[in-house]
Amino acid sequence: MNAAAATLLRPLLSRQAARVSWAGGRRGVHIEKKIEGLGIELPTAPLPKANYNIVCLPPGENVMYVSGHLPIKPDGEMITGTLGPDNGGLTVDEGYDAARHCGLNIIATLKKQLGDLDRVEQVVKVFGIVSSHTDFKHQHLVMDGCSDVIMEVFDKPIGYHARSAIGTNTLPLNAPVEVEAIVKIKPE
User: Fold this and answer.
1) Which residues pair with 181 in a beta bridge?
2) Sign of CA dihedral 65, 29, 188, 14
3) Is 19 a residue whose pLDDT tops 90?
4) At 145, is the secondary structure helix, strand, or coil?
């Protein structure tokens, strides 16, 4: 092959090699190694609790919509309760821990759905709902549990996301927190 042909083919070959690296089964395990190095144990990816998909990735698109995840610990036990220590409910620290477990479950779902967490291009938005007594006003601090674990795992800029945190009077299965996410995915 002459130099001119090599110059013309180089961009095509590099794009094809990039596709082969995903499609050929080779995985980039940088994020998985980071999780291991942080001593984080991912739970088994949860299944839907009713009639819906755990994720939706419309054909031909690269944005994955992740359904609401509950605070299920690696042993399968779910954290339950309502936030509001002044009314006998959970404390901010307990809520933070619950939101962290929601985040870990979202990460476990992404790993199961994508096969490789290095395919996450950007965590775009996290939406958290906190079951709260009416006098509890710290939903934003509870949701830091989810945001912090996403940042630990994915770091800036990938993990840095927009976020909403709202309070409600009840959640399914007596969960104290439910979190959903929108995630941009690298093409296969």
Assistant:
1) 66, 126
2) positive
3) no
4) helix
